[in-house]
Amino acid sequence: MLNLQKTYQQEAGTLDGVYLFVLNGAKGLEGQNKDLLGEMPRKSRFGYIFTANSYNTTSLVRTIAHELGHGIFTLQHTFDAEYGKGTQGETNNLLDYTEKGKELAAFQWNVMASPAIFTAADKTEETQSHYVEIKKLLDWIKGNRSKTEVQYNKDAYDKGFGLFDVPLEMAVSEKQKIQIYAELGSSGTVDFSVNEKNITNAINFDLDFEKKYHTGFNLIFSYAGRKDDEEKAIKLWCYNYEEFASLIDYLGYESIPQEVIVDLYRKALNRAGENCNKLDIIYETAPDFVLDAIDDNMLLQHLTALSGCDMSNQVVKILLGRQFDTDEEKAALNIISHIKK
Q: CA distances (Å), 47 to each of 103, 109, 163, 255, in order?
């Protein structure tokens, strides 16, 4: 399904809106319900509708509305744990699994007042995320992090292949939840000792200017005796450094030295040169300690380069609604706030 998104992206060019792919059915998709009517993760601009599983036109229309409720308006199912766990099929709500549900509660209308943010820079992901029992997986890694050979059973954690690159929410403390993405390789034997000795051996700073329009930090676990293999046993990643640091802390690894992270960002800045469309990607999410380590001359040079990006009418757009916010402006503000003189 990700290939379908990529193919469409190549043909359509700049994305401008929300897209539904209408297909005959979901049969044959690994890990998916054979009677699946539709799928559209929250905050996603891509959705799938399976017509062969709809009872009639009314059912099809309801499925489309249900999925758009997830994708555009970020609504959750009414029977999710934080709302009404165990109540599936007991309401007439649009976000329940009932044939005739079409109602919305007052709190849902409030949520819909702040729809998902989509920008022209949004791209399909190069790597597909899996639906994973993330706490169970992380606790298993945490308990085995110093061992050289640990038998890994993918089926114990993988709930099925996802149609989209979707985040998994994980509470790392009573006050903090982070978003993690996961990709699981086939079952095998994993060596965690390499990462325990030097966690920096397992991290990778992801900045692909051609395919990805954000930064990302990956934590990669290799199979025992196969460190150089292209296939990896487990890959976890976050698009925000602070969340990634919280992930490392939760797993019990020592904190990554700040100088390592600063060096990764410096190399990314060298690759970006003075291209404003690359600099904004780096500066919009760079942590404070990285920005503090960059001298004023470079910050001013990059601020000048960013000013060459087209920001026309963006102030007016921001005043009209947060969905029009732009990464160029956020990047510029981050630079300005860290100029020392």
A: 21, 21, 9, 38
